[in-house]
Amino acid sequence: MPRLGMIIDLQKCVGCGACAIACKTENNTDLRHDGQTFNWADFQFSMEGEFPNVKYTALPVLCNHCTDAACVAVCPVKDKAMFKTEDGITMHNDERCIGCRRCQKACPYSVNNIDEGNAQYSVISFNSKKSVPHEFFENKEELIAGCTISGAGLAKISGSNPPHKTDYKHTDYDPVRRKGVIEKCIFCAHRVKNGEDPYCVVSCPSRARVVGDLDDPNSEISMLLKKYESFVLKPEAGTKPNVHYIRSFQKRS
Q1: Any idea where the domains of the chain sit in the sequence?
Q2: Do the Cβ atoms of 45 and 57 come closer than 8 Å?
Q3: Label partner for 49 (CA 20 to 30 A): which of 34, 83, 121, 215?
Q4: CB atoms within 10 A of CB 211
């Protein structure tokens, strides 16, 4: 079996957000939850220096599908709601999830302090028990009575919540997750099993993302890692991330 990983070429990435929009569209993630944007593919923005010598960085972030995933290690469920697949994807089973959020707290790339909402990276998200997924499309109120349609009305006409839902089949993952469970990037496993790339990869206009087998020396991803110096996020955490970054927007090589 392959060991799937991803490379993000920061020289090609301009932070346009196409990957985040593509992910949201493909995986039916909610608009907002608990006052925060609900994204599996997100960005960490930073600025260094003083004007006019300023360096601005848009760093794409997602689940790192770690080889030694901390989220998997702490899952208390007997058969593991969070687990590793044979091809290296860190997968989540909706049916087995008890919503304890231990995986979210253990992930070094997710929320450091959930109670205070201090998110460093948006990686593992929780469907609050107080919220209904895609609650906007449960709302029957019209912005202008008799003139505009409500979210519920739009969902009714389309026969789906959300109206633009991608209805895929997966043994572990529902196309729309219910309240009270964890959700996160699954490398578009429903696409990968059909020989397709994750939708964020397909939708990147500059082809900054490459997915492939890290154990195949002839794969594009392995050749890029040989050609360029790479880095991973928080290597000191010891989780062995399988999402790698190469080059930078400022430095050309």
Answers
A1: 4-246
A2: yes
A3: 121
A4: 22
> Do 219 and 227 form a contact (C-beta atoms < 8 A)?
no
| Residue 71 backbone phi and psi in degrees, to 5 | -65, -35
- Residue-wise pLDDT tens for the chain (253 aa)? 789 999 999 999 989 999 999 999 999 998 765 555 678 998 888 888 888 888 888 899 999 999 999 999 999 999 999 999 999 999 999 999 999 999 999 999 885 434 444 444 568 988 887 778 888 899 999 999 989 999 999 999 999 999 999 999 999 999 999 999 999 999 999 999 999 999 999 999 999 999 999 999 999 999 999 999 999 999 999 999 999 999 987 655 4
Dihedral over alpha carbons 168, 188, 95, 151 (to 10 degrees): -60
Cα(71)–Cα(1) distance, integer angstroms: 22
How big is the CA angle at 74 (ends 130 and 45), to the nearest 5 degrees?
Answer: 65
Find out if CATH 3.30.70.20 is the number for domain 4-246: yes
Euclidean distance between the first and final Cα of the chain, in Å?
Answer: 33
